[in-house]
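Sequence, please.
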C-alpha cells in the first residue's frame, strides 16, 4: 500500500471509530482512486459498509477483493471473512459457513 493510501486508511479507521461512516467511506474511496487494484482497500471499504449496516454492499466489496487477491492468501482470507460476516448478518448462515471455510482454506 502506498504511503498516501496508508494515511487515508488510518484516517478512515479513526473516522470509523467515531462512527462517522460517510467521511470514513470517502477517505477509503480517495485511497481507491490512488490504488484501484488494491484488494485491501476494497476490504476496508467493505468494513465501513458493514459498520453502516449495509451488508449487501459489504459482501460485494468482499467479493471484489476476493477476486483481486487470488495470489495474495492473507488478503483473500480477509475478503472471505468479510463475506462470511456480511452473510451471517443477513441470516444466510449456510452461505456464511461456506465463506468461512473458504477463508480458513486460504490461510
Amino acid at each position: 500500500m502506498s504511503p498516501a493510501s496508508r494515511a487515508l486508511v488510518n484516517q478512515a479507521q479513526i473516522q470509523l471509530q467515531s462512527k462517522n461512516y460517510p467521511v470514513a467511506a470517502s477517505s477509503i474511496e480517495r485511497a481507491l482512486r490512488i490504488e484501484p487494484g488494491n484488494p485491501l482497500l476494497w476490504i476496508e471499504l467493505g468494513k465501513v459498509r458493514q459498520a453502516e449496516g449495509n451488508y449487501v454492499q459489504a459482501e460485494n466489496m468482499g467479493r471484489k477483493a476476493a477476486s483481486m487477491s487470488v495470489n495474495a492468501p492473507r488478503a483473500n482470507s480477509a475478503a472471505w471473512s468479510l463475506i462470511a460476516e456480511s452473510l451471517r448478518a443477513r441470516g444466510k448462515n449456510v452461505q456464511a459457513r461456506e465463506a468461512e471455510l473458504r477463508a480458513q482454506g486460504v490461510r
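The mean pLDDT is 94.
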